[in-house]
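2024-03-11 09:14:02 DEBUG pipeline.ingest accepted 1 chain
2024-03-11 09:14:02 DEBUG pipeline.ingest length=90
2024-03-11 09:14:03 DEBUG pipeline.predict start
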Amino acid sequence: MTNYTLFPIGIITGIFFDAIFGFLDNFRGIERKFFGKRIHHSIYGLLLIFVGLFIYREFLIGLGFGIILSHTARLKKLLFIEDVSVKKRE
């Protein structure tokens, strides 16, 4: 039996978690870099969706979507991994 009310609760919780992650990243200046690539916290959303395929389906998938949607809306582009080894031209 599935409980479909957990999906929108997961999305709202994901938006809230993304706001916290974004605030902490900006406040503390944290950048997660790995081999010249910057890992955005929206990658956690992908991981949560993948884990949600196996356990706590509705809530974890909603949580993952909420993180990804909020991060994409804030940056105005969909980013998971960004190449920072090349200097950007302005």
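2024-03-11 09:14:41 DEBUG pipeline.report The helical segments are 6-28, 43-52, 57-75.
2024-03-11 09:14:41 DEBUG pipeline.predict end
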